[in-house]
Structures
1.
Amino acid sequence: MSVAPATALVTGGASGIGAACVRALREQGLLVGVIDLADGAEADAFMQVDVRDAAAVAAAVTEIEGLIGPIDCLVTTAGYYREGSITELSVADWQDMLAVHVGGTTAAFRAVLPGMTSRGHGAICAIGSELGLCGDPFAPHYAAAKGAIHALVKSVAPEVASANVRVNVIAPGPTDTPLLRDDPNFASYSSTLPLGRIIQPDEIAAAVCFVLLEDTTLTGQVVSPNGGAVM
Amino acid sequence: MSKLRGIDGRLVLISGAGQGIGRATAERLASEGARVLVNDINPETAQIVADRIGGTAVPFDVSDAAAVDLALTRIEAEHGVVTLLVANHAYMTMAPFVDHSEFDFERHLTVNLIGTALLMQRCLPGMVESGYGRIVAMTSEWGVIGWPNATAYAASKGGIIALTKSVARAYAAKGIAANLVAPGTTDTPQLDVDAIDAGLTHEEMVAVYAAESPLGRINRPEDMAATIAFLLSEPAVALVGQVISPNGGTTRL
């Protein structure tokens, strides 16, 4: 039933939560490959890829598997946050937000799942969001994209469960990353959370490691290290 | 995985640890280096588990406020402050709702819900003084989604969710994380209650539940122990009032 995972792939692993996941997984002894739009990931294999390009994602996974071996664990963190009201956001704004989050996550799932199911083991952790649960009046396209990731995971999990592949979401609350520090409301987040402070990336990474590396029956679930933002 | 952060050397109290999920949790936490206090209403099973893992048996009735206070006073004098608490004990019977006696219904609430509240009330002041605490309360998949013939049990487990979320909100900023685990059907002695209600043997009940699970296997006590261990770890402070559901994918909320 349990095969100790040896490798992981992290999309968006060059910065923020992704980089914290890469560090944590390497500390657990895994070989970690990264795909990211930006250069500069500290990983065992790296490919500069735009996750909106599904063919490029598939090619990068093949390349990385050649370097570190078949992918046992996948973490999808690639994404971005941008504000905009429902009346102001353009069709292009919506399409790009969905292409990166839903398209990019789906592309990574499709690239690794056939190998995982044929080997009979694997674990996937998609990064969703607290905002995918409760919505975001400042970024409806972001909230909708993250909510779609949650629904995607709940749909894929039962499909691949019989092949002993588990699929879950980690849905962080406000986390201390470059993505958040650019937010004009950064300072006000802490006071809104029962925890009284924002989340640290290594706390998200610890949750990701639990979901991926502990041999449990956790699948199709949304786990929320969100400081109590949504419960 | 390598050892979890924040468990080694800490004092943990686990209620209902003489069997099932509690026992597996005691074993897991002992392997993580925790000093384990094994509570059960049955002194013999508590002692057997404590002997096995090198822990301490602390048998008492969690639904008796005076007994809880006496036990914790003794524990604090002999072992120190309990900074990790696992409220795992449970009472369960099954019956059609309209036939369920008031007495037995109330017993579910007294043992499961009030017992969990009493443990939290008695342990929280020490955690506050330490500026550190982790609480895991065991609810149930049925406490989340409800279940026919398990109305009293489900109601008590649903109450534990609201209780723990409220405690989590009140104490998160003090460094105390309170969360819940909602197991799916798990292969423990309690499964006999399901089996009797369904007119099946324990093994037949396991097979039925395994077939209903997308993962194709029944949940093991160890699945829950691993989840509890994570929620007791240091970085799990980011989780406040959350319900984690290792259930093989049967319920996906």
2.
Amino acid sequence: MTSRATTSAVLTTKHAYEVVVIGAGPAGLAAATAAAIAGKRVAVLDDNVRAGGQIWRVGFGAAHEDRERGRVAEAFTLSGAELFSGRQVVDVPQSGELQAWAAERQVLETFQYDKLILATGARERFLPFPGWTLPGVFGVGGLQAHVRGGYDVRGKRVVVAGAGPLLLAVAAHLRRDGAEIVTVAEQTSMFRLALFTASLITRPRKILQGIHLRMELAGVPYRTGCWPMAVEGMQAITGVRLTDGSRTWMEPCELLACGFHLVPNTELASLLGCRIGADGVEVDADQQTSLAGVYCAGELTGIAGVDGALIEGEIAGLSAAGNTASHLHAKRDAEAAFGRAMARAFALRPELRLLPAPETIVCRCEDVRFADLKARSTPHGGWTDAKLQTRCGMGPCQGRICGPALETLFGWRNASVRPPLFPIPVAAMCSAPQAQEELSHSLSQETTR
Amino acid sequence: MPDVTVRVNGEAVRLPGGSTVAAALLNAGVHCRTSVNGEPRTALCGMGICLECRATVDGQPHQRTCQLVCRDGMSVETGS
């Protein structure tokens, strides 16, 4: 699981804070701000180059300044909370202490905390279908992130497909950046979308956002009840075969952005031992998990969007600082209800489970094919059996991509999460304090024997 | 931010300052890594989760290029 880096010496440093927040997206920033204003020493650790999470990833060119983002960023800056960017949390060796890898500087850092707030957000759900591993196929948020990172898509013909509100938002964003959107294919039926829209009657702002995006995408077909079947191409994508269930057709394109709504990043919560439910990490009214002193906020507790993340973050920050946040509970519960309605609306249709061909790769890290995994789908099979027999989920992403796919395809759930949570050089693991202790202990035993 | 120039497999690629190394590879039209069975792969998730965008950056192997910002003169080797 570790990379063969040539680094021989790895520095280690130690920090201590009253509250440590993991993730600098909307939930993490709101949590850190609330806790810091309440007088706590707060550190925020984030994997990305800049704060803001995926939704507020800073873009190039025509960056649409988001008022909410500006307000949250300013409050965070003034709060006194400290931001540590480019940190991957890799282990929690003991309660009250975690280890983070700073890849850019090749430093392993230890952070001690009294209270921990997890705000690790969500990732896209990917489903395997023939050709989905070809160059030119991205996630929906994935392609948007690359464009914000400087990928030039001007004049490129793009199909946007999958499930969830991200599809329209990203299609509009890509068009603004000069891409030609061939079509947007949403697997959810028009009927379900209409029901969902009707349920938003008390939240006109969200309906207006949708109408605004549709207007911006004038002339682009938005096909509901439509999904991708296969990507065509040899070394790179040349088109995508779409279907509406009765008819299939080819859409020639240079890029496919495809993702099926979102799944929470629960790995760190799992490693800590927090109880996890069907939607995400389970929390009480104060956003506290099943572990005392460990709080959770944002998409991690169930996908509900940015408004829910901000309010959950504020509650978690106030609670971690020992303050009451009961005045915010009603608002939080309303956002959670919106999230549940969204999950119902964009629930995956069963046809998607039939998309992979026997030779379709499901685990991209280890090139494990669908047929080899289907053979493990027996009463005695499952995740662990598949891992042992096929190496599925044992590559560098550690099942983050194939895990949710296997849950959709076979109902398997990845129960075992082990450190390091991300691949790090062997030298970094050897330099960890407890590893050095173990090493010297075994060496002293060696010499006394 | 002024433009930066990085070398991708020896070829100069110029792009806006603040761009990611993954964007440099995508703009250059090269794939990132070669899979276990020899297939070319490019960046998928854009947020440091899938690790498909791994490449060797300034001699350091297995770097997640989507989470790395380009610096002038950076050297990237792909395809391993």
3.
Amino acid sequence: MCLGIPGQVVEISDREKKLGIVDISGVKRQVNLACVAQGEDLSPLLGQWVLVHVGFAMNVIDPEEAARTIELLRELGEAQAELESMQKSGARP
Amino acid sequence: MKYVDEFRNPKGGKGILADIERLVAKTGRTAKNPLKVMEICGGHTHAIFKFGLQSMLPEALELVHGPGCPVCVLPVGRVDDALSLAVRPNVIFASFGDAIRVPGSKGSLLEAKAEGADVRTVYSPSDALELARQNPNQKVIFFGLGFETTVPSTALTVLEAARDGVDNFLVFSNHITIVPTLRALLDSDGLHLDGFVGPGHVSMVIGVRPYDFVAAEYKKPFVVSGFEPLDVLQSVRMLLAQIVDGRATVENQYRRLVKDDGNRVALEAIQEVFEPRATFEWRGLGSIEHSGLQLRAAYARFDAEAHFKVPSVSVPDPGVCECGDVLKGAIKPWECKVFGTACTPETPIGACMVSSEGACAAHYNYGRLNPSSRLRTVS
Ligand code: SF4
């Protein structure tokens, strides 16, 4: 819960609600981008890596940081748990 | 990926470890009277155990594990309150996975679910809001848990519910904040901490300025740290350098992610939706003033506690469980009598054994890496 998981923004799905589709280690889910949006235009976020906490992107990170963090979460056994709970969770985009 | 290995490999930390040894020697502290550095974030606790960092450090330097695991610090009474909500008719109770296994005095949410309560595991508060949209005739109660890393997500979800008029969405808030907690730890007798490894992702939200009081008022060094093993070691080195110089300042080792001012949007959302409770009870630490968050009056229609009466009684931990002392850093997990025998991650007696961020679970899973513990080997 404390550690975020990195993902790449692959689509802006709802500009008004600031939602995007983020690819998190192969699992695509809707993520709230409000905290990382610079102004109203979300398109600069496309392709960027973000750190996702419980479905909300809390920071933009560089690809190297993303790779290291994914590796760390794998070693801690957290990546699998997060991805599973993401897949099992009620809502889908 | 080579850089990953280099960054992760403890050998890459040799220079840092040598510095740490040199600095610790300068303080003149010994294994009998060690320097004590506390990490307050459960993510750090998990990483420290996983990578066996304590065993790499000089004996005169002890890492003390703080109450940074939100699931672990949830007191039995609040788990009972959650249960009382979950068993109500016409209620869907939505919780993060970890929290449904925490034992209350009358069992866990998972057991309530087995007996017919509609308890759902969600990954995100936005999934709980979606459940509310799909089930307009039921109340969906989201079990809000966590420090400032998860508070913004609950706040933004409440704002969305308000905007879209999803009035069957409710929050049972058990959110907590880091600063009053730190103050309570600093004020508690008998801990004698020499410095803090500060939380990385909480600080991403709140920034580093809120910690200034730790240095200014309590004269303790504070270093906000990343989660890589080398991040933690670097942060420890920065703390030691301060101690040796007789300085106490707030430093930021995790500059690559943490900005001094935090995240403005997240902070504004928290501010809009939440306000501090007069007091909030913690497992092991007792009641801490202003440490819990409740929904503001303007959002009371989304507040589960405003809708339904919860028993709200303080219930002591089960007699054998010493979670409280583990959370305060007063005893090590393996010093608890039932650790690894009656209490395991499969059959947790206390909350510290439930979450992977809890010190008991981390110790159980990775104890083999720590030669100082008399632990079974788990592979
Ligand atoms: S080992 Fe179990 S019973 Fe003992 S302190 Fe830890 S969680 Fe509590």
4.
Amino acid sequence: MTERLSDAAGRMLREQVEGEDDRPSMAERARFVEAAVGLTRAGEHRAGGRMVLLIAALSMILGVVAVILIRDRDDPLRFSVGHERREGNVADYITAPRSDEVPLYFSDGTAITLEPSARARVQYTTSHGATVLVEDGALDANVVHRGDSEWTFTAGPYLVHVTGTSFVMSWSPSAGLDLQMRAGAVRISGPGIEAGLTVKDREHFASRDHDRGVPAGTPEPPVDPASRVAAAAPPQTAPETETYAERVAEVAVRSTHAARRSGSAAVPAGTTPPVPPADDAPPGAPPSETSPGPGPAPTEQVASPESWSTLVARGQYGRVLEAAEGRGNGTVLQMSPESDVEALADAARFSGRRELAEQSLKALRTRFPGTAPAIGATFLLGRMADDAASPSAAVKWYATYLSEAPAGAFAAEALGRRMLALRRLNDPESTRVAARDYLARFPNGPYARIAREIAAP
Amino acid sequence: MAPRSTVQRSREHPVPGSVSAGVVSLPLAPLEDAELLRQLGEGRPAAFRELFDRYARLLRGLLVRMLGVDSEIDDLVQESLIVVVKRSSTVRDPRAFRSFVYSVGVRVARNELRRRAVRRWVPWDEDVASVRSVAAHDPVLTQTVRHIYQTLDRLGPDLRVAFVLRFVEGRELTEAAALSGTSLATFKRRLSRATERFELLASRDPVLARWIEERRQP
């Protein structure tokens, strides 16, 4: 019987299209492993560099249209400095002179006015907002509310998260944080209020050391974990608050008037030395671990306004480490938002900067206890100890993780690894107990086979 | 058709110490793939190397048979493996991992065929039909193979995938339907159209017509 033509053609291809060099090369293997590692780190990776001409052309056309349509939404916010609205640069150090305010105008309509003698910098901007580091002094903020607004003001150990609101705040290492709401709401986190505290309407927030009226020039006491929110105004119940509220009102009025004035005394970086007047700093105030120093040189720039987590996602760990060095690793660990500390921890881990990674993970635990990144940091500290052949430390971290998140995402892994670390410690009884614990919870888990071997009598 | 895949497996990932790896390795495969899946989920570089060692050759062979040998095959193998890594977490039964990898290769091949169909709107890309084979020293065979691929190029991606899965890969109908992501009825319909069209086009191709004629001669 004659073989059908299609069968014959299929057999021909099967037999003939089998090259002797079919085995993929080692170079291809290395290329794939590199891409896959990048994929797991970046979350997304495209293999190969092939382009299909027509699809590419269509994509480009669509892309151009899309860019035109959404450019303003996806670009990081731009901002200008001073009444003459000179272009502002991310990470530049901005000092308001003692006799005038310095307004910052952002492309989303947000306006922030640095009060006389205030020092601040716009750490970075995104398409949804910015992070502003207030080093010292007061500012008046009118943040335009959009659905996806994300603004953060960092002041010493405090973070003020804003979506859209109007408020006046001041910060100094010696006097603490004061914040007077005018409209909307903010969420403040910091020592004693790690979980965050919402301040809204016309409420007034003052960290307690400020309430106690610690005079400038006296050594700064340890930051009291307790902070409080007080309704702005009633003078008979909160004299300090009243004093502050009065000042706030005065500042607000001055700001309104100042906005109409022309001319500027702004000191954008690169134009005037950013050294604050000597008498600007609280006399005798000791350097605070939680407050930034005078800041880097005025020419310091963050290479890109992209967030650190974005850079980590792209595998650009060096840029994150470099940016952190620029700010000062200590400052980042003590003052930067959770996402930056987490990104720094990742960048340090992936770059083999073990010590910095540990410090970052521990900072996550200390500064943001109870949050998912902090709990995840506990597990990662265990993994790092594991990798460093420190099984006893690993066991402790895994145990801590399991107590913090008994049903957490890494629970199976932590239980299994804890069991193996105990075995490395030559502690057969504890290892057996750990194996039984593991099997009780994850009878089909990845460590089940070895756990059964260990648990077997 | 299971024996065929068993033989392929033994060639790609022999079990040390086994006399007849194709037979002995089969029961171990689920366990090995389970471990591989777990490690892929953890993003371990060693798992990526293992994935490549186990399946790159399988994918390369499939893609070559689907598309012919050309300069883009290595990229397509890479693309397939990356898709496997990305979607490995969706594999619930480790015993199905091998089929999963294979189906990813089929999808990548079909997508590539669609891209090439679009590309032919622009100038003809000679690379698409530049088939190389071990029979390169035999120009007649090489030319025949090339013309088979040129004929397949005229089937369209879906019909071509159906044709190759059935006649080149030798897959059973139900298995081929699953691998191509269609119902059995759809696959049968496509295969019928593919066969009819291929044989019509082949009979009109001078090189294939000669090859058909030679086959008929005793």
